[in-house]
Amino acid sequence: MPFASDILGHAAQVAMLSRALEQGRLHHAYVFIGPEGVGKRALAYGLGKAIHCGEAAHDYCGGCASCVKIDNRNHPDVRLIEPLPGKKEISIEQVRTLEKELNYRAFSGKKKIGIIDPATLMNLPAQNALLKTLEEPPADSVLILIAASAGGLLPTLLSRCLRLSFAPLPSAEVARYLVEQKGLSSEQAALVAAVSLGSLGRALSPEMAELAAQRAEWIDQIAAMRETAGWAALAEELAKERADAIRFLEWLAEWYRDVVIYRVTGNAEMIGNSDLAGKLSAEAAKTTVDDALRLRAAALETAARIRRNVNRRMALENVFTEIAGLAARD
User: Fold this and answer.
1) How far apart are CA 267 and CA 260, in angstroms?
2) Dihedral angle at the C-alpha atoms of 279, 259, 41, 315, nearest 10 degrees?
3) pLDDT score for 1
4) 163 forms bridges with which residues in the sheet?
């Protein structure tokens, strides 16, 4: 059953969508929320293949004309909306074009599928335009919004979508994939899996070695923020490149997630930064669960805002001010 076996992890989400498909009860709109690179888009395309496959019922074969077209991103009934080349936002014109296409009869006679990824890059006019479509959804259509967090999306938009939350993949699953599919040694795979923080997309990135070295440095800088106000230099450095700022903030969110897990369970095997358990233990000893959750939310919200082109340095400084502010309460 490829729909289940092709998707790494997320068994509950796959089972829910498979059951809805079999029962003919797919929702008209979903929002997939979770860290980047964990398989949200892969699952969206998997659902598209399960709907349109010419060989399997409520599943997909992976080899028929429809499956191949979806894999090649040229199926007429499965449309991906993302920022156009050279653009930083998804425009209202793109959303209106998608709305028109969803209202057309499907070429296959099945369902039209629209995937918006990342949905948080829709500007405000685009989100308001999409809201109208969600209020009166076209017949035989499924809309899937994909986002790292809900922070950049209008509450009214979210309220009209069925939300599926995605957690980081277990390090063991990522490591096993790297060994079986990419030929890495067990030791290499374990380190890359830990550094990837549960993101297969990140694990496959050539930047993993650099990130592995940066993590320890970032952790020391975060710890120093509680002793001094020397965070301005880090904010200035990270703000130079949008991608660097977002990568740091996504890592920071997962770091504080690990802090919460470690404080609650005391188990370093369940965390993404398992190879830095000593530093994590030190951070968990001086950070409450409530503070860690608040800082995680702040990191995710700031990443979403930076994707929407706010002043990067000011946004980063606001997060660092919150971290430094913990010292005043210690």
Assistant:
1) 11
2) -90
3) 47
4) 31
In this structure, how many other beta carbons lie within 10 angstroms of the beta carbon of residue 198?
25
The mean per-residue pLDDT over the stretch 118-146 comes to: 93
Give the CA count within 13 Å in the CB-facing half-sphere of 12.
6
CATH superfamily of 2-165: P-loop containing nucleotide triphosphate hydrolases (3.40.50.300)
* Strand-pair partners of 114: 79, 143
Cis upstream peptide for 118 (omega within 30°): yes
Amino acid of residue 54: G
Q: What is the SS3 assignment for 148? A: coil
| pTM given for the model | 0.73
Q: How many CA atoms lie within 13 A of 44 on its CB side?
A: 30
Q: Is 32 helix (H, G, I), strand (E, B) or coil?
A: strand
**Domain parsing of the chain, residue ranges:** 2-165, 170-205, 207-329
- Assigned fold of 207-329: Zinc Finger, Delta Prime; domain 3 (1.20.272)
